[in-house]
Design brief:
The chain is of the alpha+beta class and 123 residues long. The protein has a single domain, classed as 2-Layer Sandwich (YaeB-like fold), CATH 3.30.2310.20. Helix content is 42%, strand content 28%. The protein has 6 helices and 5 strands; from the N terminus they run E-H-H-H-E-E-E-E-H-H-H.
Length: 123
């Protein structure tokens, strides 16, 4: 297992959930190197590339939430925790015939959200 680190934004996002939702989400969100090696669109873990693969961001899918994170050394740095409907609404409104991860990798608005998370102080 890798150590999970939340930044200010992702910590606030997860704190805004009900206690039961927080516990369920954190209980499910266990990241291992094996999970990341098998990441793909159809799995709980997906990958989103930026700048032609220079930055690899991972996405964890639970029932109602998406956790976006990167892996550095032995740490998982969580940038954002978003409700799935925010992504579904984005894809629906964009009317993109792509996978969720592919569509997000091409969205400037999505990367702005991630950049806010990257710049936030780690807790």
């Amino acid at each position: 297992m890798l150590q999970i680190i939340f930044n200010e934004i992702s910590a606030a996002e997860i704190s805004s959930l009900s206690t039961i939702d927080q516990l369920e989400l954190l209980n499910q969100f266990k990241v291992s190197h094996e999970d990341l090696e098998q990441a793909g669109d159809e799995n709980a873990f997906g990958t989103i590339d930026r700048d032609g693969g220079k930055l690899k961001l991972y996405r964890y899918k639970s029932k109602d939430y998406r956790i976006y994170f990167e892996v550095t050394d032995k740490n998982v740095v969580v940038h954002r925790v978003l409700h799935k409907n925010t992504l579904k609404d984005f894809l629906y409104r964009s009317n993109l015939p792509l996978s969720e991860d592919k569509a997000l990798s091409e969205s400037k608005n999505f990367w702005k959200l991630i950049e806010e998370g990257e710049k936030a102080q780690k807790i």
